[in-house]
Amino acid sequence: MGPGAFLSALEFSSGTKAEIVGKPSKEFFLSSISEFDVLPEECVMIGDDANDDIQGAFNAGFQGILVKTGKYRENSEQLLSKKLLLLADNFTQAVDYLLLNN
Asked: Please, are residues 63 and 41 in contact by the beta-carbon 8 Å criterion?
């Protein structure tokens, strides 16, 4: 049984609707800044997954830097709803970009 069917079975048996709190949920990203005095548009997500990391962050109002490591797939950035701050070769390049442009 896959996770979707398992989740549906749990919801049915408990009579409760599950609340998804992981990426790419908007609530997940907003909860990461809730204790700070910042606006979502002032925040940048650096990630290697165009959908779960970057599009999820975009949906919460964040900016995004996609890195070409790990889960990155060639041209996946073309499916994003907003323009990236940067398509970086690695995490170090992403951080250097932020330090130089802030």
From this structure: yes
- The CA dihedral of 71, 67, 65, 21, to the nearest 10 degrees, is 20
Which positions of the chain have pLDDT values less than 50? none
- Are 93 and 69 contacting, i.e. CB atoms less than 8 angstroms apart? no
**What's residue 10's pLDDT?**
84
- How would DSSP label each residue in the chain? --HHHHHHHHHHHHT------STT-HHHHHHTTTTSS--GGG-EEEES-IIIIIIHHHHTT-EEEEESSTT--TTGGGG-SS--SEEESSHHHHHHHHHHT-
| φ and ψ of 86, to 5 deg | -165, 145
Residues 86/94, Cβ–Cβ less than 8 Å: yes
